[in-house]
Amino acid sequence: MLILTCPYCGVRADETELSPGGEAHLTRHGPGSSDDDFHGYLFTRENPRGVHFERWRHAYGCGKWFHAARDTMTLEVFGTYPAQTTEPPRDICDAITARHPGWNWRDFS
Amino acid sequence: MKRYSAFAIAREALRNHTGWTRAWRAADPKRSYDVIIVGAGGHGLATAYYLGKNFGITNVAVLEKGWLGGGNTGRNTTIIRSNYLQDPSAAIYEKSRALYETLSQDLNYNLMFSPRGVIMLAQTQHEVRGYQRTAHANALQGVTTEFISPAKVKELVPIINLSGPRYPVLGGLWQERGGTARHDAVAWGYARACSDMGMDIIQKCEVTAIRREGGKVVGVDTSKGPIDCRKLGIVVAGHSGVLADMAGFRLPIESVALQALVSEPIKPCMDVVVMANTVHGYMSQSDKGEMVIGGGADGYNNYTQRGSFHHIEETVRALIETFPMVSRLKMLRQWGGIVDMTGDRSPILSKTPVEGIFINCGWGTGGFKAIPGSGWGMAELMAKGHSPLTDAFSLDRFRQGRFIDESVAAGVAH
């Protein structure tokens, strides 16, 4: 059972209380963007075997969207943080680097 | 290769079974091959087999990180059907189903193919309309399916409870020629036939890098050393993204865990496959008597080959209403496989941005049924550069908006 702490209301919620929302920190390319960018935004995903940043919604709680950093191989959760950001906060990056030396944000696989 | 036959069994019975040989050779990698297939699951081995059989390309190695057929080939619920909606899907799945009918004879290996029939239950008005539409589409595609009444469902499945209350059975999409096969035997049969053609099947050989020169593939680095090749087929299901990353491109794929479970063996009680897509549950009875139950997929990315318990709970809760007698069954085993999901729930069989690399992935929750057809098409694609079976499933269909939307036919249940 996956357990994430909602960064807004502080509830330790198990996954039945949450709705997964896919990869986080996508750049929303829209009208006027190149075909490559738009295709990438719509379809291409990191899908890493390891550290994954993803969106979750506290659907049966406060209802808010937040982000989580999680390892898809071990299900280890490195932390959750509010969604109003374009990159993960420092402390979460540090927690990941402590576990995976040499890991860098946006330097996947 | 010694042929398997009734005569061979009698002969071996008379000499204490000392004459059986290994079904396939354990091989060490050569320096180079014409074609390397990464992934010795059903799809990879079928690709290699039809490369040899249909195109005479036998200087082939099939590399496998773990053991043969140890991924999703050994983890699925063995259902074979071809009642899809879109024309390209119907073509490849029906080709596959048709190949399964004679595959045991073709491979000289008993796949225990059992065309016992598959019902997809319609449990909402929406599903009734959807499956009637599919039945009409199948009629145009030359796939024999029929929308049947609840009374006919009851006749085919005496243990079913039609009246709900939560999930009443309003009808069903019936494919009489669908069924099941022994999943491991499919991989073993193909492996034996490939080995017999002189191909090398190399287990415990993990690909660690893909070597390219001037935008063209020249070989792979593996845990058993570097191997050169002229063409490379990536057929690794859930780990496709990892291999694509090594080759320097990305895929429109996300990997999630899909679960299944089996009960204790009981006496024969259901001789068809029943799928209930509304409740994300499907069930058939294996030859051993176990009820084989497929569940739902997790909603989040996962490579752990196990799934969330609450999906099992949801599946079983719904099945108990539809099949009240299973409520007292004990479940023996539960397991998960990593399925590679595309946005339109259809597979990708395609050339890639790297010349000489071909990819076969994205079968999502329903690859087992497609193994022979997928191998047939993929082999033609790799040998000739295109195939009528696979052209619509190219990687660029997402950019071009040519989706093959099978989210209804393939949403979860296979």
TrEMBL record, chain A:
Pfam families associated with the record: SoxD (PF04267)
GO molecular function: sarcosine oxidase activity
Any GO BP: tetrahydrofolate metabolic process
Gene3D superfamilies (UniProt xref): Folate-binding superfamily
InterPro entries, per database record: SoxD, SoxD_sf
Superkingdom per UniProt: Bacteria
Segment forming the signal sequence: none
Protein name as catalogued: Sarcosine oxidase subunit delta
Organism: Sedimentitalea arenosa
UniProtKB/TrEMBL annotation, chain B:
SUPFAM superfamilies: FAD/NAD(P)-binding domain (SSF51905)
EC number(s) on file: 1.5.3.24
Gene Ontology CC, one term: cytoplasm
GO molecular function, one term: nucleotide binding
Broad EC category: oxidoreductase
Location(s), subcellular: Cytoplasm
Catalysed reactions, semicolon-separated: sarcosine + O2 + H2O = formaldehyde + glycine + H2O2; sarcosine + (6S)-5,6,7,8-tetrahydrofolate + O2 = (6R)-5,10-methylene-5,6,7,8-tetrahydrofolate + glycine + H2O2
Domain called Rhodanese: residue spans: 35-79
Keywords attached to this entry: Cytoplasm, FAD, Flavoprotein, FMN, Nucleotide-binding, Oxidoreductase
Cofactor dependence: FMN; FAD
Swiss-Prot/TrEMBL GO biological process terms: tetrahydrofolate metabolic process
Listed NCBIfam families: soxB
Family, per entry: Belongs to the SoxB family.
PANTHER family referenced in this protein's UniProt entry, alphabetically: FAD-DEPENDENT OXIDOREDUCTASE DOMAIN-CONTAINING PROTEIN 1, SARCOSINE DEHYDROGENASE-RELATED
Protein name listed in UniProt: Sarcosine oxidase subunit beta
Lineage of source species: Bacteria, Pseudomonadati, Pseudomonadota, Alphaproteobacteria, Rhodobacterales
